[in-house]
Amino acid sequence: MATRSNEEVRLKTPPLRRSEEAFARALLVFPDGTSRVTIERDPIPKYMERGEGAYLFDVDGNRYLDLNGNFTSLIHGHAFKPVVDAVHLQLASGSCFANPTQVEIELASILCERIPNVDRVRFVNTGTEAVMFAIKAARAFTGKEGIAKFEGAYHGAYDWAEVSQSATPENWGPADDPVSVPFYKGMPESVLQETLVLRFNDTALLEKKLTAHARRIAAVVIDPMPSQAGLVAAKPDFLDSLHRLCRDHGVLIIADEVLNLRQGYRGASARYGLKPDLLTMGKIIGGGLPIGAIGGREDVMDVFSAKSGRPLLPQAGTFSANPLSIVAGIAAMRALDEAAFARLDSLGDRLRANLTDIIAQQDAPFAVTGAGSLFRIHPTRRKPREFRDMATNALQKDASRALSGFFSRHGAILPNGAAACLSTPMGETEVERISDLFRLFLKEHAAEIKNMKIAE
Ligand SMILES: Cc1ncc(COP(=O)(O)O)c(C=O)c1O
Predict the structure, then answer these.
(1) I need a labelling partner for 310 at 20 to 30 A (CA). Which of 14, 235, 246, 368 fits?
(2) 66-70, 119-123, 320-324, 450-454: which range is least confident on average?
(3) Annotation marks residue 154 as catalytic
(4) Spatial distance between the Cα atoms of 302 and 405, rounded to a whole number of angstroms
(5) How many angstroms does the Cα of residue 129 sit away from the middle of ligand 1?
(6) 256 lines ligand 1 (CB under 6 A)
(7) Residue 47 annotated to the active site
């Protein structure tokens, strides 16, 4: 593996004077100075001016390798020319209409052709909306109110999908009887009662709980590789049980692929053998513009149909299927042929192998998970198997923060506590750069890391 000297990768802490000024103004108009809780601040957010390919440039003129990609949505990086051209052209002809456009048929066709079990599609504006409508569709189809989901899994901001999203060892309850934990103060008790919480890859718990509660459960919502629950894939025997139980008890499977669709030409369910009835999409299918989509089996998707009168589930949305997001999505998805996914896969494999080697060489208490273009570095010696393995002590949290802070000071944006991603404009140079930075971080922080006594 080619390595560069420490001096070569070491940079000065970038100046952030303009970002500081912007943040001071932002504090006057936003509750905490930001408009999204996920904005990283170390200690202040970096205000970005522009993006170009794999790189971002902040208002102070610093350049960063972008491993966040607006939360994994920018699979082609920034200002991807086919997207820019498509959006310019569309914008000049109008940005949205109350009528359908031909382009929406084209993006829907791409999704239906590529993704197994997606016979029909509806477009919305975010992944949150896609998950919300998929859950409502399952309710409308089955006539049942409840849902089941996996502890720690993130599915956006619909109340039922938020249950136990940030459960902690103090409130998550016994391993064989997880508690439905509210996500925010005031979350209705009825939502908690209507949401059965399971544990990812725990087949025994799935068998026991789903069998007992199936008569009130419309759907199991599952991300085939939940980022917040470790970024590890669903096991084949676990999926076998899920398929059998759901079929036997009239429960639908909703695969949330808002994030993981980027794992392959046919998506993540196909990659791991999950056979959903409904599938939610977002992020990459909008080419960097806001989008969400619900896809699925024709008979289930019929709940949206007004062919024979009022639909079982009316779904509208002022900006749903807006042509700007649609044309951007077409440009992005067309450029993602099977060869593009294969290339991303092999870059990702190389990066994960490099990081794993570096951890072994330095006997560092870290582990790497992920697949395809996604990776996550955990401050734990063993790879997490599910959400409960992700519980970290204060020192481990500090280590994660220190790692992101180190990357940021050295010109790379590495998300703290979330999935990081590669994008198509990246190549060997970027993989080596990430590896070099990680190696240097472990070296420079060797003493503190040793003192962290990270759980074995
Ligand atoms: C798996 C998953 N589902 C749903 C969402 C929500 O999507 P959005 O942020 O577009 O509302 C996300 C966003 O990160 C996600 O990762």
Answers:
(1) 246
(2) 450-454
(3) yes
(4) 48
(5) 9
(6) yes
(7) no
Report DSSP state, residue 367. Answer: E
Residue 127 Cβ < 6 Å to ligand 1 = yes
- Name the band, by pLDDT with cuts 50, 70 and 90, for residue 15: confident
Do residues 198 and 204 touch, judged by C-beta distance below 8 A?
A: no
DSSP E strands, 137-180: 146-150
Q: How far is the CA of 390 from the centre of ligand 1 (A)?
A: 20
Residue 283 and residue 128 in contact, taking contact as beta carbons nearer than 8 Å: no
Nearest protein Cα to ligand 1, atom 9: 127
Residue 316 CB partners (closer than 8 Å, separation 6+): none
Q: Whole-angstrom Cα distance, residue 270 to residue 372? A: 13
Q: Whose CA is nearest to atom 13 of ligand 1?
A: 156
**HSE-CB for 9 with a 13 A CA cutoff:** 24
What residues form DSSP beta bridges with 197?
149
Nearest to 159 by CA among 199, 128, 123, 124: 128
Domain 81-334 maps to which CATH number in 2.60.40.1120, 3.40.50.620, 3.40.640.10, 3.40.1000.70?
3.40.640.10
CATH 3.40.640.10, the chain: domain bounds: 81-334
Question: What is the residue type of 434?
Answer: I
Mean pLDDT of 380-399: 92
Catalytic residue among 154, 223, 272, 277: 154
Atom 2 of ligand 1, nearest CA residue = 155
Decide if 256 is catalytic. Answer: yes
Distance 155 CA to ligand 1 centre (A): 5
CA–CA distance, 50 with 25 (Å, rounded to integer):
20
Say which CATH superfamily domain 6-79+338-451 falls into: Aspartate Aminotransferase, domain 1 (3.90.1150.10)
Q: Where in the chain is the domain with CATH 3.90.1150.10?
A: 6-79+338-451
CA of 412 relative to ligand 1 center, distance in Å: 23
Facing residues of 148 across strands? 196, 220
326: nearest Cα among 109, 135, 130:
109
Cα atoms in the 13 Å half-sphere on the side-chain side of 137: 31
**Ligand 1 probe mutation, 225, 254, 259, most atoms within 8 A of CB:** 259
Per-residue pLDDT tens for 242-252? 999 999 999 99
The finding on whether 131 has its CB within 6 A of some atom of ligand 1 is: yes
